[in-house]
């Protein structure tokens, strides 16, 4: 009896060892860089790929399994998994404009039409399955530039448009008539402006933005080297600075996914091979997943979609 009691007391005195946290399951990733579009599995192997020489700024795997791709400076292409082109739209100068046009953003809408942002033309168009423009929204652009008028553009559930305007350093929300109903202008965050696409470059060339269910807007600052969450009143309520995360330095911040658990997946372009091209971060700023594939892709991976997740952003 005494030995049993001694054994029981000894077992109570032993420290309880914490179990190792579960390993992150990883994600499949669709992205474009180094002359190809590819889907990378959770095992790091290429599941699907197709040649694409254009440095893409948007990309999407559609619910029907087809891919919406940025295949040229003015061209959006829908392609089947068998690599058959089933739809294509090429932006051209609008009437009265003779300058260059570039496309940097597009989105397949719930009604089957496709939103296309046309820099140079300074407009958003909605295009039907026959390639006909069925709606046009004129953009307010303070510093016109066919390469910098727009970056990411998304139509919201409200019918408004959330538009990242790189040259103006501004995110604007337009209503269905083209009226600006909200805007946020980026600042330099207390650092001097500097040239360059890598971590040394710093400015207000905004790239991406998503609207959360609570009405806040998360902004991928491009060469602002930051992620900002901004409330309706324009106040920053949460942010990630360039060197705030362990093991990650932010360069040109691009892709955004908002997850149901509150985490964000962030694209980190031009940051170099010592940094992930994509990473998942918690609200208390812990990096819980990294995507780093400099064999398949390179240092210019800007357009990416993380697959098989429920993205809670308002599309």
UniProtKB/TrEMBL annotation:
Instruction: Please name the Gene3D superfamilies in this protein's record.
Output: TolB, C-terminal domain
Keywords linked to the UniProt accession: Signal
Coiled-coil stretches: none
Membrane-spanning regions, if any?
Answer: none
State if Lyase is listed as a keyword: no
Task: Report the leader peptide range.
Answer: 1-18
Which Pfam families does the protein's record reference?
Mala_s_1-like
InterPro entries cross-referenced by the UniProt entry: 6-blade_b-propeller_TolB-like, Arylsulfate_ST, Mala_s_1-like
Q: Does the keyword Signal apply?
A: yes
Name by which UniProt lists this protein: Arylsulfotransferase (ASST)
Task: Say which species the protein is native to.
Answer: Frigoriglobus tundricola
